[in-house]
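Hey L., structure's done. Input below.
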Amino acid sequence: MDSRRAAALLALVLLALALSGIGPRDRLTWLLEVSPVLIGAPLLVLTWRRFPLTPLTCSLLALHALPDREVARALSGALSSRARARRSEVVLSAQ
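Output:
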């Protein structure tokens, strides 16, 4: 994996973590949820040259590192827009 794509994935994860840290319901729970990422990301950066990862592995690690709330919001938005599109297709075909 090239370093630009890895840097983009790291920036995406850090941005998502920063956004999820704004006004969490419980700060301690948030810290416990993101602590594996805060520990693992620097380890991956430090061992990048010695243990290079495949693009698939990096992408899956980045997806796994995203906070659940952000992933759920993104997925629900995508699913609801698809559902709205299907409903409009059904309504149009019924007319």
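The two ends are 51 Å apart (CA to CA). The chain is about 80% helix and 0% strand.

-- N.
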